[in-house]
Amino acid sequence: MSSKEVVSKRWQSGENGLTIERLPAKESFKSKAYAALKEAITHMNIYGSSEPMLLDERDISERLGASRTPIREAVAMLEQEGLLRAVPRRGIMVVRRSKAEIVEMIEAWAALESMAARLATQRASDEAIAELRTLFKKFDLSRIERDRCDEYSSANIAFHQALIRLSGSSLLAAMTENLFFHVRAIRHRTIFEMDRAQRSASDHLEIIVALEARDADRAERLVRDHTLRLAEHVENHVDLD
Amino acid sequence: MSSKEVVSKRWQSGENGLTIERLPAKESFKSKAYAALKEAITHMNIYGSSEPMLLDERDISERLGASRTPIREAVAMLEQEGLLRAVPRRGIMVVRRSKAEIVEMIEAWAALESMAARLATQRASDEAIAELRTLFKKFDLSRIERDRCDEYSSANIAFHQALIRLSGSSLLAAMTENLFFHVRAIRHRTIFEMDRAQRSASDHLEIIVALEARDADRAERLVRDHTLRLAEHVENHVDLD
DNA sequence: TCCGAAAAATTGGCATACCAAATACCAACA
DNA sequence: TGTTGGTATTTGGTATGCCAATTTTTCGGA
């Protein structure tokens, strides 16, 4: 067997149980630009003004100290992800979602998370579920001051993310994370009203109980209805456009 | 009113019923490369050999008659989409999903489609649901010859896509389409066995009945279980790695 | 024949330059 | 003063070239 074949085999898969991942090396400008842009978009009040938010390639490349090429690649990725939209001769703009789109996202989220709850009742360990209860006590939403909207929002999302992790499906986690990103962006507007917090807390507790009881149907339904209520709330009480 | 304002108004929105959309312009090399690569990947028997399938930037740019730059942007997009993975000094490889990942995809699909079914019972028109029945009759899966695996697979997916469209959520449609892409790639292996066709057909019929009855819970459950059975089937009877 | 080191070739990341389309600007004319 | 035609500028798309990290090949010595 030639040396080449041996090397090739090593890389294919670790039949020896030792999978060698190429170390991250030094991050490329492309990834750095991607991260920087996403970070910037995250902390941007997208729905603050109604003016289109434009980005300029050359400007960005100067700020980041790189050429346009890696920036363009990063933009292409974010465009694929649905966060940006590049229009020729017009600029790169941050995509603003319509209320209808946000509602669809929350509905999709409800679908994924309710499935996660179902799977969690079948797969999560008792210990893992117990941790969820701990998290619940620690960040008891009803205790958060009524004016700390962001904190409420964060704690809320933390609970949901923890729940999704219980499913053991990294895909569900990844997909919902993406949805959270968009939904989170309108938290200023949604005013995720604090009077919903009480309801949220009790909902969450009910969900935990259902998980502990390993009641798949009930857990699924509770999660679904809980999130669909948010969708309905946004539909009825949020004005974006 | 000045001429300029008239023109401006015309472009804003067609209150005169004439909406002028900016013409698509000529597709950029970037989009063409993206489409070409995706097309190529689609018709590639990804799980045919166990050898890593490598792509070469320079080779691709020559074939497409463009420079490396737009190809690299297209690759960056496909990488973001999870279809490719570019490793420095090693090449661009088509991502091969593990069985576990495929199963997770089918579970996510089940989540999204069952939600679509629920929404469809609330939103789809009787006519739209009726069309689903038409489609079902036309492509009655039980009639497809037992050796036409691809045809079965296509008809199957067509039914599911039609169902999802009934929900009216373009997001659910987009997300599942992405999942279908990956699941479809293993159709040769899954042998989506034809003996499952009979079951599939009756399942589909039941689903249609539930939709017609506007029974949200039942429609949701039928769709979920139907797809989760596929996940279980893949889990138990498919060997990828 | 085998091994290892050095040289050569690959290859992806990045910078730069150029181009064409589209807009902004401006001056001349009605 | 307002419109118009043309020019300057901006900006995204693409091509090209260089570089550094790696891999592959070569080749001399054991």
TrEMBL record, chains A, B:
Question: Does the entry feature the keyword DNA-binding, yes or no?
Answer: yes
Q: Residues in domain HTH gntR-type?
A: 27-97
Would the keyword Transcription regulation turn up in this protein's UniProt record?
yes
UniProt protein name: Transcriptional regulator
Pfam families in alphabetical order: FCD, GntR
Keyword field: DNA-binding, Transcription, Transcription regulation
Query: What molecular functions are annotated in GO for this chain?
Result: DNA binding; DNA-binding transcription factor activity
